[in-house]
Design goal:
This protein has one domain. It contains 3 helices and no strands. Helix 1 runs antiparallel to helix 2 and helix 2 crosses helix 3. The termini are close together.
C-alpha cells in the first residue's frame, strides 16, 4: 500500500484514501459473505439425501437467478457478497498501486 504524503487531490479526496477504504470494505464484505456462504452450503449438504444431491442444490442456488426463499436464497446472497467484496478488494488494490 502506498505511503505517499503528496499526491493529486480530486475534490479534496486523495486516491490513497479511496484505495485503503475499498480494501478494508472489500475484506470485511468477503469475510462476512464467505461465512454466510459456508454455513448455508453446509446446511444444503446436510439437508440433501446424498452429498452429490447437496452439491447439485448448491450449484443450482449459486448459479441460478436470485429467486426462491430460505437457505438457497441465503446461499445465493452469500456468493454474490463474496463476488462484490472481491471486486471491491481488487479495486482498492489497483487504486493503491497507481501511486
Amino acid at each position: 500500500m502506498s505511503r505517499r504524503t503528496g499526491g493529486r487531490r480530486l475534490s479534496g479526496v486523495r486516491p490513497e484514501q479511496v484505495g485503503t477504504l475499498a480494501v478494508q470494505v472489500g475484506y470485511a464484505t468477503v469475510t462476512a459473505a464467505l461465512l454466510l456462504a459456508a454455513v448455508t452450503f453446509g446446511v444444503l449438504l446436510a439437508r440433501a439425501p446424498t452429498v452429490a444431491a447437496g452439491i447439485d442444490a448448491a450449484v443450482a442456488a449459486g448459479t441460478g437467478p436470485l429467486s426462491g426463499s430460505g437457505v438457497t436464497w441465503l446461499f445465493h446472497v452469500g456468493v454474490l457478497g463474496v463476488l462484490i467484496g472481491s471486486w471491491l478488494l481488487g479495486l482498492g488494490l489497483i487504486i493503491d498501486g497507481l501511486d
